[in-house]
Amino acid sequence: MIDDEHSSWSLIQGELRRAVPESAWHQWLEPLRGRQIHDGTLVVEAPAEQQPWVARRYGGLLRECAAAVLGSETQVDLIAARATDGDHPSPRSRPDAAGTAIAFNPRHTFDQFVIGDSNRLAHAAALAVAEMPGLAYNPLFICGPPGLGKTHLLHSIANFVTAYGAGATVRYTTAEAFTNHFVGSLREKAAEAFKAVYRGVDVLLVDDVQFLQEKAHTEQEFFHTFNALHQAGAQIVLTSDRPPQDLAALEQRLRERFQAGLVADIQAPDPATRMTILRKRVQQDRIAGIDPAALELIADRIVDNVRTLEGALVRVVAFGSLTGRSVTADLAAEVLTGLYPDLNKRSAAMTVREIQQRTAEAFGISLAVLVSTSRASSVAWPRQIAMYLARELTTQSLPAIGHAFGGRNHTTVLHACKRTAERIARDPEAFEVVRRLTESLREPSRAP
Predict the structure, then answer these.
(1) Which domain-ending residue is among 320, 340, 360?
(2) Cα–Cα distance between 172 and 339 in angstroms, integer?
(3) What's the Cα-to-Cα distance from 78 to each of 41, 53, 307, 322, 345, rounded to whole Å?
(4) Taking the model in full, what pTM does it have?
(5) Domain that holds residue 60
(6) Residue 52: CATH number of its domain
(7) Tens digit of pLDDT for each residue in 69-99?
């Protein structure tokens, strides 16, 4: 072991500390230990879980600082520390004590992402940052309307880095989850634990950052988190339903940082891409006996939302299975007319409030009851239908829909959509209720 206080290692540490921001020093370089110098090679030990990242990110700097102290011919061998019974995990590998991480979707990988002219740049940029975190585009800001694949790309990055990142750590979250976690840490006086969760990673992926707007304290904390990660060389990837310059209610200093890297937008898929998406979903789900003409009709009708496109396929196949009919173009037209009437024209104009009002009216309850905390079955089912239609017939994201339903979170909306889809797939009466309600939304609202 090299004597830390009176040896050349102490001088090398001084060189390293002067070369990097203070946060990077404490996070990555201070834990290093100089072990020995043998035949012109300095052996340096790093915590096992940090060694791959330190070698990749700071290996060159370590060699330069060693050469400045020990001579230009000095080589550096950066090794991983051996675990012992007395070792404790560092904050980077310790299970979250201040919040539960959102799991990565194993189905969302780069292999399963369908590339077209509308998303080619975003896909290429996402793959680049997954292959070289912190070295390609940092930050990467992916923007576009809901349902076009932004979340898919975030999970693809997470899955790729987890599989091939040599131990690099990844955290995926949403702006809503970040806000809730931050507020909870203040309430529980666990600010340091909160910081460790988000600042102790190699890659931070944040979905729907537009929901940070008008949350002053959360914006401030996210600003400091962003800076700490960026200075440490960690990769940051953000998504939003609009470009940074259109986030008018967000602090200017955050908008400037979001624009400092690469901004890549995603647009609605073209017809060829929509057909490829449907064929891939058929292959992935092992759906047999579907008429290619049915896929063409779905691709022709659903043009501006990949999520709705795949959802339409699932509905058509489920209805065919329920009724014992073959999945033909005629069946697809029947189902789409019932569940997605004039979707292309209505999706931009339809509002969540309009859906809430029509649903409440159809079930004979008030709007206030519909969005209340009541769990009575006479309220829960209409609420689930309204959430389902809000997701299918508007351009609003899950957090935005949840906010409109009494401040519920996005997981509640997702659960409601899943339950409704399952029920209408197996229950003809439920299917008819949703079909009639959807038809009524085509009509002008009646005067009060």
Answers:
(1) 340
(2) 33
(3) 10, 11, 46, 61, 60
(4) 0.56
(5) 8-80
(6) 3.30.300.180
(7) 888 888 999 998 875 434 433 333 333 334 4
